[in-house]
Structure formats: C-alpha cells, structure tokens
Design goal:
- This protein has nine helices and 15 strands.
- By secondary structure, the protein is of the alpha/beta class.
- The chain has a single domain, classed as Metallo-beta-lactamase, Chain A (4-Layer Sandwich).
- The strands form two sheets. It has an eight-stranded mixed beta sheet with strand order 1-15-2-3-4-5-6-7.
- Helix 9 links the parallel strand 13 and strand 14.
- 50% of the residues are buried.
- The C terminus is likely disordered.
- Bound molecules: zinc ion (ZN).
- Zinc ion binds next to loops.
- Zinc ion (ZN) binds next to loops.
Length: 387
C-alpha cells in the first residue's frame, strides 16, 4: 500500500533557530580549522566490493556514498540514506552561503540507478543531510518518499518542489520501549522511524540546533538555516512474500545519546539487526555510544558511516573528520561487538549474498590512543528519555 500524502499544519511562528548564527558559523570555522591543524587522519579500512554471507535466500547490497549517504538494495526494493555530494569547504560553510551543487549531485548520484528508490531517509535537517535531497528526489529518485522530521518538511517548504512527497515521521516514530508505525513502501519493504537525538558537535554545543516551524518559501542561504529539528533513526526491513523479515538494517545519521535511538527490545527479539549503520563522529559527546547500540540491536555487522571529512571534494582521498578520535571509537566497538565492523571508503559496495565466503578483506583496527574504557556490562536503559 502506497503512502498517502502527509498533512502537516503550518504554524504561526517562524524559525526558532539560534541567534547570532554568523558568530556561530565563524566559531565553527575557527574550531574546525584549529582542530584540523594537528589532526592525524584515519584512512578507510575497505573499498571496492566487500562480499559477506547472507542469512536469507536473497542478496542485499549496501553502497556507501559518503556522509549519511547509502543505497540499500534488495532486488527491486531500494532505499536511500540521504547523501551529500556538494561538500562545501569548511570556510564556505562557516563564513559564506551554501547551496546544493546540483552538477555535483548529478555527477555522483548519476553513477547509480536509483530511479526505483521508494524512500530517502533523512534523520535530521542539517545541511549535510538535507541540502542535496531536493535535487536527488527530483532528478534521480522521482518516485521516492522523503521520510524526515517536521523541521525538514518546513525547511524544504514550497521552494524545493517536493513538499507533496515528504512524509513527516514525528508522529509515527517508535522509541526504545514502544514500536512505532511501520511505513510500508512495497509488499517486501517497510521502514520504522525511531526517536533519536543529535549529539553535540563539541563541548556540549550543537550547531544549527532548533526547529523550523513554518514552511520556507525561499531556499536557505546559510548552513545555520538548516536546523536539525528532532532527530530520528530508522529500521529498514526487507521482507519475504509472507511478510517475514529477511534482512534488517538499522540506520542512523547522527550520534545519539542512548536510550534515544535504541529500538524496542520486543522488536529486536523477533529479528536482530543484520547490519547496523552507526555514526562515530563526535561519539565522545555522549555516553555508551556505540556500546548500548550493540547491546540493543545485536547487529551481525556494523558499517560506519558519516566518519570522513566532508568538507573536501568526494574525489579527494577519504580521510577521517576532525574532532573525533576514530581509533578510540573503533577500539570500543571491537570490545563489545561479536561480529565484524567496517570503515568503508566512499563508493564501497557491501554485497550480502547467500553462500558468500567471508570477505578476504582484512579490516585492521587502528591503534588505540584514547583513554581506558570500561565495558558497559550491566548497562540498562535508564528511565524515561529526556526531551
Ligand atoms: Zn547533524
């Protein structure tokens, strides 16, 4: 059953984003450049095609496009995690206007056939997740729903030309205790949003935080006008003909402070997550990321996304984003994950195929240089999440 067009009431108030946006933007540039000056980057662990065994009867492909961008494909069922190809520089992002580079979007997205994509997942409204979505939706995935939050809906407003294709997930989402509504995209594909949140970027400060409460009539000009709104993660289920789960993917596009972002245990008990797409950037701003997610989702594999420097062209060699000690993150991940994890280069294609041998590609763990860690044995979902 196809989705009905959403109805989202407009509100009287305008944007309620941070004031002094220009000052924040300059601060971002200064902080990022300062941190970048002494940073030792981490390179991708895998590239090209990585073949892994599938538990089900069919092959599933996950292709990393950089930042929050993924193509999740099983046969004719295709879902996109919203990519960013424009990649404005840190100086431009901090000090000048930013807008989608539609030629870059066409160049990189055009490498893939996503014309049959049923949905584009956008967990929050920051520019690096939403800015290129209109061009992708209009030109490359013309039948896809855009599943995002109310702020994302209002940010794209009337100027982007995709309003009727946006499904606001705020009132459909589940949380760590309760299942949300399954959004059925085809007889063999469904998605559920999960209430998550967005970790601070540094020192408990979250850039571009706020809600856009009225549909915009003009395209945002500044990164600071792409507010995050409430943040969501997603479960994507590929189903068999009887509705059973064949392959389950968890997708997040921002670090979350658990229990926000977790899936209800009742759901995971019926089918643990096959692949968890987790974000390492700024993980040290919250507690128990990734440990709580591994314990909750029980993933067979973890693929790391949104880990690389996205202030440079996609054609440049991929290297880790500053402000995050990726070696410490992956060490903590290894301590709790029974399965395998991968740090993919842009354009890496993971193929989960029946009977496939373990990938001959060796994922090397970066050396540990972070502070000692304590395994969260006995971690329990604390009381009701804070808003
Ligand atoms: Zn963000």
């Amino acid at each position: 059953m196809r989705l009905a067009a959403p109805s989202v009431p407009a509100r009287a108030a305008g944007c309620t984003g941070p004031t002094g946006a220009a000052i924040l933007a300059v601060g971002l540039a200064v902080v990022l450049l300062g941190a970048g000056g002494c940073w030792i980057p981490v390179r991708p662990g895998v590239s090209g095609t990585v073949a892994l065994p599938a538990a089900g009867p069919d092959s599933v492909e996950l292709t990393y496009l950089g930042v929050g961008g993924w193509i999740l494909r099983r046969g004719r069922d295709v879902v996109l995690g919203a990519p960013l190809f424009s990649d404005p520089s840190v100086l431009r992002t901090g000090l000048a206007s930013v807008r989608s580079d539609t030629s870059a979007v066409n160049r990189y997205m055009g490498r893939y056939d996503v014309a049959g994509a049923a949905a584009i997942l956008v967990g929050h409204g920051h520019y690096d997740h939403l800015m290129d979505v209109p061009q992708i939706a209009r030109r490359h995935a013309p039948h896809a729903w855009i599943l995002t939050n109310r702020t994302g809906y209002n940010t794209l407003g009337s100027w982007a030309g995709v309003a009727e294709r946006i499904r606001v997930v705020n009132d459909l989402a589940g949380d760590e205790r309760h299942a949300g509504a399954w959004i059925r995209l085809s007889p063999t594909l469904r998605v559920m949003a999960l209430r998550s949140n967005h970790a601070p970027h540094f020192e408990s400060f979250t850039l571009y935080h706020g809600h856009t409460t009225r549909p915009r009539v003009e395209e945002p000009r500044w990164a600071s006008e792409w507010l995050d709104g409430d943040t969501y993660a997603f479960l994507v289920d590929f189903l068999d003909a009887q509705g059973g789960v064949v392959f389950r993917v968890y997708y997040q596009d921002a670090i979350a402070a658990p229990p926000r972002g977790l899936a209800p245990d009742s759901l995971v008990a019926t089918h643990p997550v096959d692949v968890a797409i987790l974000v390492p950037a700024t993980f040290d701003q919250v507690d128990w990321h990734p440990e709580a997610f591994v314990e909750n989702l029980r993933p067979r594999w973890v693929l790391l996304g949104h880990w690389e420097n996205f202030f440079i062209s996609p054609d440049e060699p991929t290297r880790s984003i500053f402000l995050t000690d990726l070696r410490h993150f992956t060490h903590r991940l290894e301590r709790v994950l029974p399965g395998r994890w991968y740090l993919p280069d842009r354009w890496t294609r993971f193929v989960f195929a029946p009977g496939a041998a373990r990938s001959p590609t060796v994922q090397r763990s970066p050396a540990v240089d972070g502070p000692p860690i304590v395994r969260p044995s006995g971690y329990r979902v604390p009381g009701p999440p804070r808003n």
